[in-house]
Specification:
alpha+beta, rod-shaped, six-stranded mixed β-sheet, 3 helices, 11 strands, 241 residues, 25% strand, three-stranded antiparallel β-sheet
């Protein structure tokens, strides 16, 4: 009786263990995916549309700024080009145009393009002081200050070497001049022509009237002035001992 009970117990275990193994080998079932809520879907669409709108606004803003900058550059270029075209026309306004309307006759160009006010005359002596028996050499110098060559008459018909002392007219090269001639020379820009006159320390009168008086010496000072046509030089002072 006792053996049968034991064998019956052992026979029931394999059946139980086999049933448990079969249950363990079955794969676990994955949880089912929840359906997307319509509200959530609308939110995503709204966010996407807003992002696209922001990108479009940014791109449009850059395009507008670029258009304004290009328009400003085109306007500036147009103003500069119009200013450049205005220069050759010779039309000027403001203070720059004033001197042309009030120019003096001496500044009017000559036939060869020279301006008279740019032709200058100066006077000089070869020494500042002369001892007894030394004769001064008076020099007239004409200079062309134009940027083009100028034709200048430097003949004796246009020149005068004048010596004075105070209000006393001592000597003039035109008082006793004979056979005055013209001598037209072309003077290059910035160049000069000179004419020298040795003064014999004598007095003269207009018309070459005779005069016996002599200029004073003993350290007296005299003034030499050169003239060419209507141009007169600054004074050059020298001394006679």
């Amino acid at each position: 009786m006792g053996r049968q009970d034991n064998s019956g117990t052992r026979g029931s275990r394999p059946g139980a263990s086999g049933s448990g193994a079969t249950a363990a080998r079955k794969p676990a079932r994955k949880p089912a995916r929840k359906p997307v809520s319509p509200v959530y879907r609308r939110r995503r669409l709204f966010v996407g549309a807003a992002l696209l709108l922001v990108i479009a606004v940014v791109i449009g803003g850059f395009a507008a700024v670029s258009s304004v900058l290009n328009a400003g550059q085109s306007s500036s270029a147009g103003q500069s080009s119009s200013g450049g075209e205005a220069a050759p026309s010779g039309q000027e306004t403001g203070p720059a145009a004033g001197p042309e309307t009030t120019a003096s006759p001496s500044a009017t160009p000559e036939g060869n393009g020279c301006e008279q006010n740019l032709v200058t005359v100066t006077a000089a002596t070869d020494k500042p002081a002369y001892a007894e028996g030394e004769n001064p050499v008076l020099t007239l110098k004409v200079t062309n200050g134009n940027r083009v060559p100028c034709e200048i008459n430097i003949g004796t018909s246009q020149m005068e070497f004048l010596v004075t002392s105070g209000s006393d007219r001592i000597f003039s090269s035109t008082d006793c001049q004979a056979d005055a001639t013209d001598l037209v020379k072309t003077v290059a820009p910035g160049q000069s022509e000179t004419a020298n006159f040795p003064w014999q320390r004598n007095r003269t009168l207009q018309g070459c009237a005779p005069i016996e008086a002599k200029p004073g010496a003993g350290g007296a000072y005299y003034v030499f002035t050169a003239r060419l046509a209507n141009k007169t030089s600054p004074k050059a002072v020298f001394q006679l001992n």
